[in-house]
Amino acid sequence: MAYKRSVLMEERLAGNRERIILATRKLIAAGGFREASIAAVAARAGISTGLIYRHFPSKAELFVDVLTTAVDREIAILQGIVAKGGSAQEQLGAAIESFVRRALAGPNLAYAFIAEPIDIEVDAERIRGRHRFGDIFRGILADGIARGEFPDQDVDVGAACIVGAFTEALVGPTSPTLREARDDTRIVDAIRGFCLRAVGMTN
Amino acid sequence: MAYKRSVLMEERLAGNRERIILATRKLIAAGGFREASIAAVAARAGISTGLIYRHFPSKAELFVDVLTTAVDREIAILQGIVAKGGSAQEQLGAAIESFVRRALAGPNLAYAFIAEPIDIEVDAERIRGRHRFGDIFRGILADGIARGEFPDQDVDVGAACIVGAFTEALVGPTSPTLREARDDTRIVDAIRGFCLRAVGMTN
DNA sequence: CGCTAAAGTGAATATAGATTCATTGTTTGA
DNA sequence: TCAAACAATGAATCTATATTCACTTTAGCG
Hints:
The structure is a homodimer. Chain A has helices spanning 7-35, 38-45, 49-55, 59-83, 88-105, 120-146, 155-171, 184-199. The first copy, chain A, is an all-alpha fold. The first copy, chain A, binds a DNA duplex through residues 1-6, 8-9, 12-13, 16, 37-39, 42, 47-51, 53-54, 58-59.
């Protein structure tokens, strides 16, 4: 007779997949891609290495899956903010604040993704993710300029600078957030202030 | 009798060391750390893999050497600019312009260093390099605030944002400079303008 | 129960790349 | 010219992981 997976079984499978993804995310968050070896992921997920390959064709695809999922979530939130309307200044401020706050809330943010290359396949996705973030900000900038809110400026460079600025301030090695005694609100304000001024608001 | 290297020999040795470093730098510039395998370095330098180990105890130390040398050079230039005095605004503008111009001049900048991790040892150095850049900008910022040129602001976050901004705009994946038809002056101006406004200059 | 399909395992294999070292070539100083 | 000391080579070795696959366990179904 044909083999039909019961609902319970179906759930277990999905659960395993979830546990693999979760384990990967945690390992990456804790110590970057380098920490997330297949053996480590398997151990953390409480399964065998072989089983991972039943769910993902390769380590690279597992990573890409984890990455895109995380980026999708952020992009959706940013788009939501833009969709809400308001002045370009409000949108930009809210977008940065949201991103920065979520990153700080971590505890150990998938955002580290934005900053660490490994293999070409994953890299491609990482870059795509960064571009998608850049596009959001480019849009807000262009809009603000069109509305006369911001002075005329190079939106490509501006978007790149904004992404670079808060990425570095948050997860980069220069980051003040890496040193203890963080005051989240202070950091959010500082980054938002920096970017808003940079874009032309006297604030 | 004791063996004493002749001057000529001494020079050949030094030349080999130089060629190894140069080959490494070029390979890294062309395709990142990943391209710079020991085999590739040896091939490019026109020597054997074994010889590399006569000059450097490990691949990591070779990379660290190449990295620090490059960073040292940049830092010295930035310090020279600061030492020349002038208003904080002038110093900041000149420092950014210098850095950005040199990076654009490439041909294929050692600055990619700033953006790509590999092993812990090299990472440590990379991070130190970024900190050293950050320190320069933190200094200029603090000075400008003290002199009343810039509004009061968080210098730690500001410095990180500045480093992040031009790093991303130059070598990051979002970078507009990666796409052809570059207009160097336009990019320099855009980045400098962004950072100066961010710091509080109405410009 | 007994039989099959799928889930799950983990030791064995494959691969890539750094590192070593036995060997060969060159330089030095008498 | 010769022997010791050093430079240089590159195939062989070591290492670290990703990936496979022969096998064990469990679930579905008559």
